[in-house]
Design goal:
139 residues, Glycoprotein, Type 4 Pilin, three-stranded antiparallel beta sheet, 3 strands, 6% strand
Length: 139
């Protein structure tokens, strides 16, 4: 009887570990999907900003230009913000979104990205960066 209880205990522990791992993985997948949705929301706001003002905010003006009148150059021609109802300051992992204008990947507009779950450039799966530009493997 003790042997059955011992085996049953091991099975319960292993099953618990598997369930917890699946829940963590699902949570990371949901964070990644949220990051993609946030990136698209910011991109839409940046495009509206550029339409009103003739250009995107400079790197120094940053994403803050989407909810506060930006200082510095280029001076907005016709700022009609806020362009975001609620500021999106950080990605779902708590790190600041990275914005560069002009972009290194898209020199005519901007680069907007998150380093993903690991907070480090590159990565695969859950750690893959969420980016505004097309990657070669996506073409």
């Amino acid at each position: 009887m003790k042997r059955v209880a011992w085996i049953l205990g091991i099975v319960v522990v292993v099953a618990g570990v598997i369930v917890v791992a699946k829940l963590i993985q699902r949570g990371e997948q949901e964070k990644r999907q949220l990051a993609i949705e946030e990136l698209e929301t910011i991109e839409f706001a940046l495009d509206r900003y550029a339409k009103d003002n003739g250009d995107y905010p400079a790197t120094d003006q940053g994403l803050r230009a989407l909810w506060e009148y930006p200082l510095g150059q280029p001076v907005p021609e016709s700022w009609a913000g806020p362009y975001l109802e609620d500021p999106i300051l950080t990605d779902p992992w708590g790190a600041a979104w990275v914005y560069r204008r002009p972009g290194r990947h898209d020199r005519y507009t901007y680069d907007l990205f998150s380093y993903g779950a690991d907070g480090v450039q590159g990565g695969r799966g859950e750690d893959e960066d969420v980016v505004s530009w097309l990657r070669l493997e996506e073409l």
